[in-house]
Amino acid sequence: MRDDSDEMVWRLVLSGDSRRYGTIWDRHRDRIFRHLIASGHTPTSAEDLTATTFLELWRRRRAVRFVDGSLLPWLIVTARNVSRNDARGRRRYERFLAALPAAPDVPDPAEGFADRDDEHLVALRAAIAAAGPADATLLAMTAVEGFTTREAATALGLSESAAKMRLSRLRARLRTAVTAQPLPQGRS
Questions:
Q1: Is the pTM of this model over 0.90?
Q2: What is the CATH number of the domain that holds 21?
């Protein structure tokens, strides 16, 4: 038996040298990944199934079989089994979803608020849309994201005084746009 064979490395893993598990991973992960890709899996799915295959290697660490000192054949068989189990699970899940009764067509209550023609909201949105991109970004960074005027100005390449002036003018335009609209019924 060679000193660098999978079997020797695995004996070291089982004797407590957990870092050597990485040696097995490094040696065989790409082959398992390519095998799963060749079996028709997407790269994302193949990555997940490769990880699951190596999880199975660890879970069944005392029962693995070597072929000429290599774990690769065992890993490939395990990858095929993991792939089949994944496909079976997906089919069961799809059957389960298909068997569920159709959800009643109930409108989302939030849509009533989002679609409401509140003149103040419409005017506010129009005023923000009419602002320049730098002003709108400055407003979002300070009012929504919580950045200080200095931080927002630096991010936008403005001086702090220029940012303060832009925000002051924008607030005045927003205030004018909103106060020009009559209050909706029931509000004061």
A1: no
A2: 1.10.1740.10
More confident: 77 or 111? 77
Is residue 186 assigned to a domain? no
By residue range, what is the domain housing residue 27? 1-102
Burial class (CB in 10 A: 0-12, 13-18, 19+), 51: middle
Tokens, residue 23: 């040696």
On whether both 94 and 119 belong to a single domain, the answer is no
Same domain, 9 and 89: yes
Could you tell me the pLDDT band of residue 124, with boundaries at 50, 70 and 90?
A: confident
Q: What is the pLDDT of residues 34-77, one digit of tens each?
A: 999 999 999 999 999 999 999 999 999 999 999 989 999 999 99
CATH of the domain at 165: 1.10.10.10
Same domain, 120 and 98: no
Sign of the alpha-carbon torsion through 175, 180, 181, 186: positive
